[in-house]
Amino acid sequence: MTEALESHSKETSITALSEQERDLAQNALIEFQKGTYSVCLSYLNKLETLRPKDLKVMHNKVVAEYYKSDLKKTELIKKSLKAICGHMSIPDSSEAMDDVEKCVMRYNEAVLLYHTKQYNAALQIMNRLFTFIEPMEESLAHKVCLLLIELHIVTDQPDAALSLLNYIESQFISIDSSKISVTDKEGPIKPIKELKEQKKGSADAATDAFRIKLLKFKARIYLMMHQLKLCKREWKTLISLGTPVNISSIFLKANLEYLRGNSKKAMKIMNSITTENLEFKTCGESAAVLYYNNIACLYHSMGKPNLACFYLQKALQENKNAMDSVRVKDNDPLSCQPLYTLGGNRHYELMYSLGVSLLHAGQAGKAFDCFTEAAQGLHNSPKLWLRMAECCIHFHKSTNEIDFNIPKRRKDLVQKVLGTGLYRKIILASSLSKDTKYDTEGLSYAIPQPTLEFGMLCLKNALFLLPVNNELNLPMTPVAGPQTVSMSLTPGHALGGQHATQVSQATAVEAINLKASVLAASAYVSLCLGDYVIALEHARALLNMNKLSGAYRLLGNLYAAESLIFMDKINEAIEYLKPENIQDLSTYLPILETLDKDKEKTEETIVTPIGCKAYYPTSLPTGKAVLCYNLAVAYAIRGELDKSGETLKQVWMSKGPDCDIPIQVIMLALYIELQLGHADVSRSIIKQHCPQYR
Amino acid sequence: MTLAPKDLANLLDILDDENLDTSLENLSNQLHQAFPKEDNFKVGTALLLLLQHIDLLPNHVQRVMAVALLFDLYRGEPLASTPFATVFVQVLKASEETTNGASRPNFVGHIPVLSQCEKNLLAHLLSYNAKETMKKSPRQIIDELYFASTPPIDLTNLQLQLAERHSELPSVAKCGNPIILPDMDRSKMAEIDKTTGRSIAESLIIGDPPLCSQSYRPEFLRLAPPLYHSANELTWMNVTEPSQFTVEYDTSMCVSNCAGAEARRLMGKAFKSVLSLQQQQHLVTELDRDPKLVYHIGLTPGKLPDLVENNPLIAIEVLLKLMQSSQITEYFSVLVNMEMSLHSMEVVNRLTTTVDLPTEFVHLYISNCISTCETIKDRYMQNRLVRLVCVFLQSLIRNKIINVQELFIEVQAFCIEFSRIREAAALFRLLKQLESGDIGGLNGPPTKNKIDMC
Questions:
Q1: d(CA B97, nearest CA chain A) in Å
Q2: pTM for the whole structure
Q3: What value of ipTM does the predicted structure carry?
Q4: Which family does it belong to (chain B) (predicted)?
């Protein structure tokens, strides 16, 4: 039926159009713009009787009614729109015309999807719509561009967003300033400058506003991509254009300083916000929520996770207040809340952040609860699942450092002493680390609990959700930001759903760091649970990554070796325990900053690990000592006590101010002496280290 | 996993030195009656512990009993497959070594230190008639074997069998060391006290898991991984202005578009037949007036070939207007792949002289032309096309639109293949001139319009 309607409407819209109809339409538009929707609707109703099959009339009627309901009857307009224009047609050139006519309807459909957080569906529509961007009336075209970029940002595709943005800039902003030739390699930087000079001439307010929005988008994208220098440049352009300094530009600037590691400066900027306030009821976002959240970010990066938690809790409360301010009790938000407030709930993101802060503050239990709650909204995020697993690991072993504190741990060498005199027996420790095996209690592992078993499930989810193409060769000399658009044929060549031909450094690095963390955690948990085959698989996958930071390389080697030992492949295990297997102990790959392409070097972002407690072992000699100690273990298990003893001696000798050695070294020495039958030596070792048992 | 306290008491009762004159066989029967078969291992572990620690079982008689009971624990089963066979072998081997002079240190954790008499008993049990030996009472055993020397005994076979069984176990399972380390304080020579011994034995044997069955194995140091480090640990929130995206009113409702309708009608015609000069001019002026009109006249990449064939001039105008469009590549690729003709060539030629076309596109078009010339069957048409292509290429080269070097081989081969045709020979000469660095040819009269010659 809709098809018949469409073909008919196409005819009518071309052919008959009476003077009366035109007047009615004009009046309706005027009334709509005035905001008198009921009057507008009366005109539209008259128009509808004259043109009962005109889709645009039907559409506008629905829109006017929606406005009349203060944008609250979302469910209704959604259904009506669907009835009027059906589903998005399959890409087919023959239907191109039809879609040009329906652009507004499609856009509205995408807007509704955007506010109800159905981003992928919205993207699908918008990508298709973008192919008709040229024929579109300009103000609509601007809106389409902005929504499309926003959608790319919210779906975490900064690279695609940037190439799109650059293309849009080249198409729209410079369209009057003489055509830029396709071969212009300067990219979109030039047009901005040109325009700046041109500005006084053509005072096109709409284009100006559009340009400012684009600039803000660009700043946001550069921040996402950690291109701080480029971001700074955009911000300066923004200011030089005479944009009023408002809450949004202040947040951008503070964000920039935050990422540059100037938390104090960022704090000052944040606190320079004056009276301006965004109210959730009218804007769809609450300045208070954003403010508290950002302050929390700053405290976290200053190494004060507890303060960060405090502010995140404030943000959560503000968020709740904001939601309560629009929520009508017991009613479906889709029929009683204004459209732009539908997607404004930040509860789950805040919960996730709170979890991260708590985890850093060492409160893994509370953190775990936060993540469990955040999982209701962010279940597609591999990071979230990794964090949950980290809580489980933290419960199992909260720090590596304790094993290296010999004075504190040496009492654990001996469990107790029984009897006196002839009957005196020293009972040695059977194990210095917590021993775990599968929990045999009949609890389901799927119930969220901070256990290693549940951690394993989380890690499986995380592995499954990892971005697929993250092994892309990481460009070590990053391409200059503005050039990521492929300019081979025409700018349009890069379009059509495949904007991201090139993945930026930041995205690639983030993906690699995430993958390394997930794999290492998986290997660790598998080992703890006694699943050695799986542990080995993960450890090998970890070591096979193209780029890997030093600490993870060490861990990969350790985990692989340990699983091999348990699988009785000691020869292979020993290969992984060579001290030359580690070079450094960094825990992540840094994101390199792109500079202007005339300066041909890249510079490492000077961001101290934000809010991180340093990972132990901190010094390279300690790392090597761990490898060496484990090598001695491998020899001892194989029965090569002499070799083991020699290796162990080396570890002992390496002890120094920058090299700690673990308590296990003494225990292994005891073991070797006992195996060799030197009971007296063993006893004296014990008495030396445990004076209480003398 | 552990003996109950009352079981241990039972065991110790059987081992009591008052049973001095009961035959070993009898004692063993008592043991088997007191404990079900599945407890054998626990009992054996307890016996072994008592043998390992002389202070817990100081009495000769008791030790003799313990050795015999341990030996007889798994009676009826092949010795090599019983869990404590290794103990017997190690005890006897150690004694061999000491007699051979290779002095082993006084204490090796898990191997019980047995007296000569006890070793002799073991040797008898292992090699001679075990049944006969078992019939004797502990007192008899001590009397007979106390001063005897250990009879030579061949354990090779048993050792082999044990070694075979052990090779099936992973190294990690074989490297354990008991965690009980005796530390006799000889300075305070306290007398043997039965009850103390008993309570110590109890605390070693009873427990879950009992201390006597625990062992220390070389332990890997397993580092926990670091917390994941992300560039955005906590998500910073910027202002996103969600209210800027809202439902839009379609302002194009009932807005008449007469000019557009006429243009659309003409375009529809242009796909099918040649337009009159007047009609063409009308269409072009309409297109010039409204830069967005070009998108509304019903042109799609699929329809472009028809337009090119029927109205090349309109096609050129339209394509020039679409240069900024995102669809232009699609139009280009249609143009490249359409059947080669005078009109398509004319369109491409005009485009090359007015806008910067992507080089890939031009190269693709040339390759396409050449291959069409080579494959065409009709001789007359072939000649015509070759001449056209040659003139087209000359024009491109002279206008410096293409860099000949990139297509040199292809074009040269083309010229040689069709050297019979005058224009091809001319193109070949031009190529040679260029190769020799003589650019004079390029400064000749502009050949822009030569394409009209055919």
A1: 14
A2: 0.78
A3: 0.82
A4: Belongs to the CNOT11 family.
